[in-house]
Design a protein that fits this description.
Distance between the termini of chain B: 36 Å
Low-confidence stretches of chain A: none
Radius of gyration of chain B: 13 Å
Shape of chain B: globular
Strand content of chain B: over 45%
Order of helices and strands of chain A: EEEEEEEEEEE
Low-confidence stretches of chain B: none
Strand content of chain A: over 45%
Structural class of chain B: mainly beta
Mean pLDDT of chain B: 97
Mean pLDDT of chain A: 96
Number of helices of chain B: 0
Helix content of chain B: under 10%
Number of strands of chain A: 11
Oligomer: heterodimer
Largest sheet of chain B: 7 strands, mixed
Radius of gyration of chain A: 14 Å
Distance between the termini of chain A: 40 Å
Order of helices and strands of chain B: EEEEEEEEEEE
Number of strands of chain B: 11
Amino acid sequence: QITLKESGPTLVKPTQTLTLTCTFSGFSLSTNGAGVGWIRQPPGKALEWLALIYWNDDKRYSPSLKNRLTITKDFSKSQVVLTMTNMDPVDTATYFCAHSAYKYGGSLFDPRFWGQGILVTVSS
Amino acid sequence: EIVLTQSPATLSLSPGERATLSCRASQSVSSYLAWYQQKPGQPPRLLIYDATNRATGIPARFSGSGSGTDFTLTISSLEPEDFAVYYCQQRSTWPLFGQGTRLEIK
């Protein structure tokens, strides 16, 4: 059974750096063709892809946010970490981590498995 | 940047009816289009990938069609659990979602 769970602060101040952790089980990110990504959703609004990390440590970032984002993985802990610098109230959103693999069909940007998300509020 | 326009914004139908949701891209995305279903308080659920392929476990009443700039998600006969928000997403360039169609009970 594949599960993912997001953790981190639920309240950050403007200009601070947000660090979110995705802890997963049921798959290995060292397996060829696997990936974990981060997607966010402001309250009542649409979804937005942020970043994706591949099994081989390749990384992709949103062009509009790439200067603020870093995605890393920790094999030993089955975790993927996203950092976002210089947080602003417009970054208030639910942040999801999600997993896919080429063996499921499609792309790693078509995630099959999602965490429940964590609501992060940016406010002073 | 590719823009995805979903229509209608809200669709009001009754269980048993057929639902047709549209997603139009501002430029060709080939067949690199997916559809997701999202219910309140839940993460999205992948329904369709590469325009026409149902994801594992998705009922056959869901089908996708189209290529290039015009795509359709069809639900052949609505079940009560199908009332939700539906998003399309392209991955021809950096992946981008549409604004969603809310499917509500009439």
